[in-house]
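In response to reviewer comment 3 from the previous cycle, which asked for concrete evidence that the modeling workflow produces usable outputs, we include below a single protein chain processed end to end. The sequence was submitted unchanged, and the resulting structure tokens are shown without manual editing.
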Amino acid sequence: MPILNALQDFEWVDPDVVPRPIVAFGVEMSDVGGFELEDHSHAKGQMLLVQRGALSCEVEGGLWVVPPRSAIWIPGGALHAIKVTGALEGYNAFVDPAVDARLPKTCCAVSVTPLLRELLTRAAHLPYFYEEGSANTRLVAVLLDELAAARVENLHLPMPIDPRLRSIADAMIASPANRGTLEIWARHAGLSERTLLRLIKRETGMSFGRWRQQLGVVLAVKWLAGGASIQQVTSDLGYESVPSFVTMFRKALGTSPGRYMAERHSG
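The workflow returned the following structure tokens.
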């Protein structure tokens, strides 16, 4: 299985030129201070599955965080950038969009079933130019079935395009413990409170408060996946107490942060 590692040579073949429905390989990166891929795109759709660690991906107006046992689907042609801040293990698959009309048309984070994970593992052991037909064709068909049926997860933060709003978003991402009021953030961008509320609703589909809460959710998932404690995340997000953070997290994702991460690392 080919390995992508920041410290190793990797025989990269552009997946867009490989005439196969799926091109898959394993991904393994040691904790060497992070890794970034700047804006780029592929003709084929891309699925990145995380087994250990976490990554963040910005795709044309949105930020996604992918923890263990999740994957991100990036449609073909979508401009995207990927950032890894620590060790990472997983799988990467490029899928020809012409082979299945059921594939998602927009970027999304999806939950990975054990079957989808095992199918992708099998696909990653195939050579780039694997022989089609027979078992390989059936493997690809079932993998596509599982991908099309995967449950979408709420790990998406819409990112505004307006430069004034983007300055607010960048500042809040850089300093999420800053619990400044709507008035303070409006002043930061040279806007009235009313204009700020109108613009952020138009560009993200969320209220200001809801957007800030979702920022906390995606950052919490990213940090917890990286090994941070619940107490540390509570502090880094500016919450006054662990219970208040846990309540927010449970409302957003349906379970406590401890149980959420335990399920991610089980098995």
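The CA atoms of residues 245 and 251 lie 10 Å apart. We consider this sufficient to address the reviewer's concern, and the full set will be provided in the supplementary archive.
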